Amino acid sequence: xxxxxxxxxxxxxxxxxxxxxxxxxxxxxxxxxxxxxxxxxxxxxxxxxxxxxxxxxxxxxxxxxxxxxxxxxxxxxxxxxxxxxxxxxxxxxxxxxxxxxxxxxxxxxxxxxxxxxxxxxxxxxxxxxxxxxxxxxxxxxxxxxxxxxxxxxxxxxxxxxxxxxxxxxxxxxxxxxxxxxxxxxxxxxxxxxxxxxxxxxxxxxxxxxxxxxxxxxxxxxxxxxxxxxxxxxxxxxxxxxxxxxxxxxxxxxxxxxxxxxxxxxxxxxxxxxxxxxxxxxxxxxxxxxxxxxxxxxxxxxxxxxxxxxxxxxxxxxxxxxxxxxxxxxxxxxxxxxxxxxxxxxxxxx
Length: 349
Fold this sequence. Notes:
Blueprint: E1 2-8, E2 11-16, E3 26-35, H1 38-46, E4 66-67, E5 71-79, E6 91-94, E7 97-98, H2 104-107, E8 118-119, E9 132-136, E10 140-142, H3 149-152, H4 155-167, E11 175-179, H5 183-195, E12 199-203, H6 207-215, E13 219-221, H7 228-235, E14 240-245, H8 250-258, E15 260-268, H9 281-284, E16 289-292, H10 300-308, H11 314-317, E17 318-323, H12 327-337, E18 343-347
Parallel strand pairs: 11-12, 11-14, 12-13, 14-15, 15-16, 17-18
Antiparallel strand pairs: 1-2, 1-4, 3-5, 3-9, 3-18, 5-6, 6-10, 7-8
Helix pairs in contact: 4-5, 4-10
């Protein structure tokens, strides 16, 4: 079968590999749609980050070459020994976090903070950029008939956004700012709407992405039109309650911090490739807080429920649909060259 595998930096290949079978405790899926994530792009341009390149991952036992793809939906076509949660024909999405279940974080239920944490589709085991894959049963969540497979491919990134908002101190009626309106930033806007934010400001260089943020209900701000912090401070009458940094660009983190009011909070949602210098006085003198999140935990059912209510709409967020045969040129390279793209979905056929 065809599968996209990471071999090295700037070296991903559409390989022919053996079709998997459902082992004990696993479920074989026919992959329907898989989204290209910012993390996938980071691995492509600057990896390995999460991908085990030299030593096998402690939980998957795999190392490069690794099948990629962790934002995906599929149909159950085979179940392994002992599987009871799903049956053949079920429509599912995958919550792709590996965790050991034994460390202190896992014992506290914070499995996304596991010492050995990894992602299916980045750390091994298989991935969504393939025709078929076999997944541990505990990673699966059923999709209701009202949520399409395309929508299902957005559950994983939407979970990141919802977790970021849930972990923040945002309350109903608060003001928020989102720095960067790529796929995750736009999904954060959706999560903020669901959480009852009164005002949402979206800072974005790309005209197309600013327009998309506006379509989702945010007040779009162009950084080219003057000092971003000053604009937000003026528009929000003193600063927002919570800002969300979703660019991974060092200077933007400082802007996100300074855009908040006293006692404000900045949530770092993105993965940084470089260090980000910040001045502690900007935090200390206003008693602000800066918090980071990684992945998600215990939010997939809530995301699926919100999708059934119309949140995180695929028709507004997906800008390109391609096949596995074109995933490198039209997908990875396309996202690097076409800044107007939001979310590209790959059909596994």
